[in-house]
What we know:
Helix 1 (3-13) packs antiparallel against helix 3 (58-164) and helix 2 packs antiparallel against helix 3. This protein is mainly alpha-helical. The protein has 6 helices and 3 strands. The chain has helices at residues 3-13, 17-52, 58-164, 178-185, 189-193, 246-254; strands spanning 167-170, 213-217, 227-229. The protein has a 3-stranded antiparallel β-sheet with strand order 1-2-3. Belongs to the ING family. Residues 120-193 are annotated as: Disordered.
Amino acid sequence: MTTALYLEHYLDSLEHLPIELQRNFGLMRDLDTRAQGLMKDIDKLADEYLKNIKKDSSEKNEVQLLQIQNLFSKAKEYGDDKVQLAIQTYELVDKHIRRLDSDLARFEAEIQDKALNNNRVAEESGASKKGRKKSLKEKEKRKKGIAGASSEDESKSIRKKQKKGGSVSSTTTGAVGSGAQADASLGHPADVLDMPVDPNEPTYCLCHQVSYGEMIGCDNPDCTIEWFHFSCVGLTTKPKGKWYCPKCTLERKKK
């Protein structure tokens, strides 16, 4: 229930309260007026009784005394009625106060429940987002791990073949594949180099690119580059005998 509904219902219950209070206060005022009139009559009768108590007969004095007692009894009834009206008026107001306190307590409880629900939804949403982020990170790690393992296996394979000597026809997973090899054989390595490559994959050759197409290994065991693309070193077929890269060839000539 919204604040407006609580307030509307409470104001509806207060609609007749002023009329009831006005009626009770009017009755109490009327009883008070009657009681004051009786007290005046009692005062007069008491004065006459005291003045004539010795003159009048005992029978007349008893009648006057009885009349005074009756007036006192009547005044007491008026007082009791006035007290009852006052208690009724107090309970009437107290009932509305208790209802207001109850409505306020329920309204505060609803606000707290709503706040708890909002916090719970926010926590669940945050946990869900964290879970999705963690899942994405784990997927990325797995992809990088697979790519790194593939590159490492390929590098080991190339080094093994290098020890035996000769050229190697290499294809890479992902973006660099059979299409890259075809482009390299046609003498268009630039097309292959423009394709996206896994950053974890090792690079070779003078162009510092990944392995693709036909490649040849330098026969110098101390060569820092090791493997070269045919097109980068001006080869179309595997040469006979030992082959040295341009850098190692210059170093051999200096010696």
